[in-house]
Design goal:
Multidrug efflux transporter AcrB transmembrane fold; mainly alpha
Length: 259
């Protein structure tokens, strides 16, 4: 019962954090970058429980809630600095300078908590054993998270910038004045959406991978239905994009040769 309540509380907590970050950053995608560091902190938590041979318990969940807030705070500090630097310089220099300048604050914020809780790891009294899962979660989760905040978050910011740029180019192509390009991109988008419906949507409704799609690799049927549908959707999407690319390339060569 506690784990179910804790799961519900964690979902509500993450939802609240996302909404607050959306309001602060005025963006729907930037909070995803901030919160993407949480799973990496969970990796450190699991590793810490493995090292100390302590099973995960409700106290681990309590520590996870506290670790989430601290590690997101480190991400906010880093991303805010990068955004400030990006106003008068390029993104990549801003990422490098922001990570370098925020190294000390992020490290001090984490080390004060980790070093303050570390003595409890070696406490042998029976009273301290109840708190040990919480301490392990905080110490190892924050320890792993500190390093990964300084490595993963800047990389994700650069990835987000590249993805946003490509989607912007796609949108300009769809809504641009070049009629041929616009129709080609609209047709490709429609095909991808239809393929999504035939794979992901049908699998979600029927709880199994559809069998009416010809030449489906057999190994996909041995996977969980949604995972198999996702892989099938990605394979089909890559194939459609590849065919569209070569078709546009051949058409461009033909047009240049005719000129």
């Amino acid at each position: 019962q506690f784990l179910n309540d804790a799961r519900t509380g964690l979902i509500l907590c993450l939802t609240g954090i996302y909404l607050v970050l959306t309001w602060i950053f005025s963006s729907w995608t930037r909070p995803i970058v901030v919160m993407s560091i949480i799973p990496f902190g969970l990796v450190g938590t699991i590793y810490g429980h493995y090292v100390w041979d302590v099973p995960l318990s409700m106290f681990s969940v309590v520590g996870l809630l506290g670790m989430t807030g601290i590690i997101i705070n480190d991400s906010i500090v880093l991303i805010t600095s990068i955004d400030e630097y990006a106003k008068d310089r390029g993104l990549i220099p801003s990422v490098i300078d922001g990570a370098a300048d925020r190294l000390r604050p992020v490290m001090l914020t984490t080390l004060t908590t980790v070093l303050g809780l570390s003595p409890l790891l070696y406490e042998r009294s029976s009273q301290a054993q109840f708190l040990k899962p919480t301490v392990i979660t905080l110490v190892y989760g924050l320890g792993f998270g500190m390093v990964l905040v300084l490595l993963v978050v800047p990389a994700l910011i650069a990835v987000q910038h590249d993805v946003k740029r490509h989607f912007g180019s796609l949108w300009r192509g769809i809504s641009g004045r070049a009629l041929g390009l616009r129709r080609a991109l609209q047709g490709l988008t429609a095909l991808i959406m239809v393929w999504f419906g035939l794979t992901m949507a049908v699998t979600f409704q029927g709880k199994k991978l559809p069998a009416f799609i010809p030449d489906t690799p057999q190994f996909l049927y041995s996977l969980p239905p949604m995972l198999g549908a996702l892989l099938l959707f990605l394979l089909g999407t890559i194939s459609l994009i590849t065919v569209a690319f070569f078709a546009s390339y051949l058409r461009g060569n033909r047009r240049r040769s005719s000129v």
